[in-house]
Amino acid sequence: MAADTFFEQLLMPVDRYQINEDEAYHELQLGAQIQVHEKSVPDWTAADIVLIGLQDQRGEGFSQPSEASFYIRRQLYRLFHWHPEIKIADLGDIQSGRQISDTYAAMKTVVGELLAHGKLIVMLGGSHDLTYGQYLGYVAREQLMEATLIDALFDIREDSTLPADTFLMDLFVSQPNFLKHYNHIGFQSYYVQPHMLETLDKLRFDCYRVGYAQERPEDMEPALRMSDMLSIDLNAIRHSDVPANWFSPNGFTGQEMCLLCKYAGMSARLSSLGIYGYHPERDQHELTAKQIAQMIWYFIEGFYWRSMDPPPEEKQAYWEFHVRFTDVETLFLRSKRTGRWWMQLPDQRFIPCTAEDYYQACRNEIPERWLRAQER
In the chain, what percentage of residues exceed pLDDT 90? Predict the structure, then answer.
């Protein structure tokens, strides 16, 4: 079946003028520049970024479809597009299935097809367990991948049967499994059972407390640079910055989350972003929708910069630093264009790193990032 045929069957159209209350968009606003699925699926093959809406929130125990994607689009379309050379298509909303597993299957089909065509996918709305459907798109491609979640919690709760509270276990143990590595950014320790963190550490997964990520956001960039998919739960952002988040008064600020989204957009490897857990009925003046729209705007801004760094193998684009630490000699590279760092492992692979990793090596210390990569 041709891609457009099953896209027509699985995706519901969008009325951009209903979203903007029949007001015309300025020619430089995203609403005027995005190709939108209105009467038929647009030609998305030339698009760099593809938007997909999601309405299923049964994973959190809500039976009614979510209108999250409508309100996010309303705010996103009103933002100005600073890089019109970046082509964006909005393919509409995935229809929720009879069972939530049917929604996962639809996501697997749509995401898998878009990945096969090399598209960067942004998914909006729905409950956080839809991350599993996002992951299944990579399973459809039989693609070994790395995933990063930004979340105040680890969704492996034993005291709940809701998929939004338990889906990480499926991500970790489902067969066949294509999860090579997992990063978790922004967990809030007082909500996390200590033994759970110990278990994830034994698996050599990298987990970062919200306080650490706030103090050293540059340390999050290498993890995002190595990730294939990113999933964000809005509970990671403090309530004052996203009024629809009733979970915690603490967390990332809106600006900090925009920076993380920019880092994600800059990753030449990352191919999908999902932003989940938005409940517009709890929002105030659509401030949360505006926050999400601005996160996507910064993600697009990061995408503009992702082509600035060639692969590490193209040495002429980098400054080279040969360092010997604890009887190990390795090579650090720093991009002449963006200033980002890479370090070489004994098997000659390069992995993203930070300037601090280089300084540690210069002090004859083993960078933890280097050590953990070796242990994996």
Answer: 85
